[in-house]
Amino acid sequence: MLRRRGLAGLLAAFAALPPPRGAEAGTGATIVASGGAARLAVTLSPGARWRIMAEDDPPRLIIDFPGAGWRGPARLAGAGPVRAGRAANGQLVLDLTGPVQLRNAAEADGRLTAEIAPAPAAAFARAVASGRPLAEGGRTGALPLVVLDPGHGGRDPGTIGGKGTQEKHIVLAAAQELKRQLEATGRCRVAMTRSNDRFIPLGDRVAFARQRNAALFVSLHADSAPGARGASVYTLGDGDAFAAALATRENRADIAGGLRSSSVSPEVQAILLSLMRQETRAGSERMARLVVNELGDTVPLLPNTHREAGFVVLKAPEVPSVLVEMGFLSHPLDEDALRRPDHRAKVARALTRAVTGWLARTPGAALAAAPGAG
Ligand code: ZN
Fold first, then answer.
1. Is the sign of the CA dihedral 117, 118, 122, 126 positive or negative?
2. Which CATH number fits domain 26-137: 3.10.20.30, 2.60.120.10, 1.20.120.350, 2.60.40.3500?
3. Collapsed DSSP state (helix, strand, coil) of residue 322
4. pLDDT exceeds 80 at position 84
5. What is the residue-wise DSSP string for 109-133?
6. For 81, which of 45, 157, 206, 336 is 20 to 30 Å away at the CA?
7. C-alpha dist (Å) from residue 166 to 149, 180, 199, 223
8. DSSP strands (E only) in the chain
9. Taking ligand 1, which is a single-atom ion, which protein residues have CB atoms under 5 Å away?
10. For the stretch 157-172, what's the b/e string if a residue is b when 16 or more beta carbons lie within 10 angstroms of its beta carbon?
11. Which helix (H) or strand (E) holds 287?
C-alpha cells in the first residue's frame, strides 16, 4: 500500500543485490489454469525459504526468497487470474488481473504449490494492508483467527443475577469452553480479548481483533433486560428500542475507538472503508443467521432473535462481528441455566457449529489469516 512504498523501495534495492554464492532459491515455476483459478508450482532448491506477499496498484503477488533470489526464467506465461510471471529484483512477481486469494499453499518434495483464485477486493486490500505474507516457507495454510470477547471483567462485573451470579465470570467460562471446542475442530485459531478477570476498555477489544487481522469477532454476554429471557444475537445497526437500550447500557463502559490512522489519501481510505464495510456487514449478518439457527436447536430464544444495535465492540470496519447474549442473568431461569457448565458447553457446541459453518461459507476468511499473527 502507499504508505509502504518507501520501505518497499528500500527492500527492493536490497533484493536487487546478487544473492550470496550458493544461496538456496526458486529455480523454476509453472502456472496453469484450474477452473477460474490458477495453479502455481515453484521448484525450490533444497532448504529454500520463501514467502508470498500481496501488493496492489496494480495487484500482484510477490514470491520472495529471503536471503537468496529467483533463479528461474525471466518470463512465465500466466493463466486464470495471473496475467503473467516475471523476474524482478531477485523475486518472482505474478501480475494479476484483479484481487485474489491464496488457497492450499503447501510445500512438499522440493515444490511449493498453491492455488490463486479471484477474491473480494476488500479481502485483498486487507491482505495488502496487513503487510504480512499470505504464506511462507514451512508455515503454510495459516488458519483463520477467531477472536472471542468475553464481556466486562475486573472492576466491571456486568449484570449481577438474583442469585449473585456475575456476568463477567459466566461469559469468561463460556468463552474458554468455546475456545476449547473451536480449537478441537482444527478449522481456526482462537484468541481471547481477556482470559482472566480484568477490565478491558471496549475500544481495546475492537483494536485487539483488528491488529490480529481476525476473520471473525464474537462477543459473549449475558446482560439484563427486564422481563426478558432467551438467547439473542446482535449485529451493528440502528436497531429497535430494546436493542438500543441494551447497547446503551453496554457502551456506557467506554467510548468508541477511532479508525486506524493511515497516510493513505482520504479519498482512497473512504473507498476502501466503504468496500470493507459492505463486506463486513454481510459477513456479520451471515454469522448472526447461523447463530440463530444453531442456538435455536439448543436453548430458548428471545423473540426477534437477531437484532441490530450500536454496540461499540461491533464497530471494526473490516472484521465481521456479532454479539451473543447467551441469555439474561436478570431472568431467574436463564441465570440458573447459565450457572451450569453443561448448559454453557451446549451453548458452546451451537456456537462452534455456527463459526465453522461461517468459515466454510466465507470466501477470503483464510486470507484474513496471516502466519505469525495472534
Ligand atoms: Zn454484558
1. positive
2. 2.60.40.3500
3. strand
4. yes
5. TTEEEEEEEE--HHHHHHHHHH-S-
6. 45
7. 16, 22, 14, 10
8. 26-34, 37-44, 51-55, 60-64, 75-79, 82-88, 91-96, 100-108, 111-118, 135-136, 145-150, 189-192, 216-221, 231-236, 301-309, 321-325
9. 151, 158, 221, 223
10. ebbebeeebbbbbbbb
11. helix 266-296
The predicted-structure confidence for 159-195, as pLDDT tens digits, reads as follows 999 999 999 999 999 999 999 999 888 788 899 999 9
Ligand 1 centre to CA of 53 (Å) is: 39
pLDDT in tens, 16-48: 444 343 445 788 999 999 999 999 999 988 777
| Gap from CA of 335 to ligand 1 centroid (Å) | 13
164: left (phi over 0), alpha (psi -120 to 50) or beta: left
Specify whether the CB–CB gap between 325 and 250 falls below 8 A: no
Q: What is the distance in A from the centroid of ligand 1 to the CA of 7?
A: 43
CA of 32 to the centre of ligand 1 (A): 52
Distance between Cα 313 and ligand 1 center (Å): 11
Q: What's the whole-model pTM score?
A: 0.60
Q: Give the Cα separation of 27 and 75 in Å (integer).
A: 13
* CA 239 / ligand 1 centre spacing (Å): 17
Amino acid at the residue 259: L
Q: For residue 135, what are the β-bridge partners? A: 52
Amino acid symbol at 333: L
Residue 192 CA to residue 221 CA, distance in Å, equals 14
The domain spans of the chain are: 26-137, 145-368
Q: How far is the CA of 164 from the centre of ligand 1 (A)?
A: 15
The CATH number, out of the four listed (1.10.10.10, 3.40.50.1110, 3.40.630.40, 3.40.50.1820), of the domain defined by the range 145-368: 3.40.630.40
Going from the Cα of 35 to the center of ligand 1, the distance in angstroms, rounded, reads: 47
Three cell numbers written together for 162? 438474583
